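re: ur question from earlier - yeah i can do the single chain one, its not a big deal. heres the input i used so u can compare w yours
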Amino acid sequence: MHGVPWSLLPWVLTEAGRDFMVARLEWSTSDLLAVFPFRHRVELAAILRPDGLTLETTLVASSEGPVPVSFGFHPYLGLAELSRANWRLELPAMRKLVLDRRGIPTGDEEPFAGFNGELGERSFDDGFALMEERTSFSVAGATCKVSVDLISGYRYAQVFAPKDKDYIALEPMTAPTSALTSDSGLRLVAPDGRFRAVFRIRIDGAQ
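and the output i got, formated as tokens:
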């Protein structure tokens, strides 16, 4: 579920090795169902490689009924070697979500041609619908480039880069903000079905 602090939930470690771990969360207790009344299981696998980290999330619905899919991650990135104004940001062409005065998507979208340049004084706090499910976002400094590669399952993203902070968040999302109340962009996992989403944080030398 997007917005729930996953680190505070009762995860159980099921596998672990030098460069990977797998954890499971059973969403079936009364306190959890009071927040999100759909029984399911989440399996999260983290795989560490020399060039980055891959996170694979699998949602397994119970036999009781369909489960709506609305979760996301918040990779916050920073590059100490350069000032924030000199970071080079690359974003693909997407559809920008139009927001109401509360910051909630209205269901409308507008073109976004992408971005490729230094951040400077520019700020972002925007949600986007992806035009291609497999895509990448990146931020680069003088010697290092960090990319967030959306590999499967994520159709939306949030870019958060306040101009007075030395960080940027490039956030994969399975659904737009407030999808559980609006139904906009919301997918359902059929009873006993599975949903899989994968993204990677990759580190390369800057181009």
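The longest strand covers residues 194-205. not sure if urs matches, ping me
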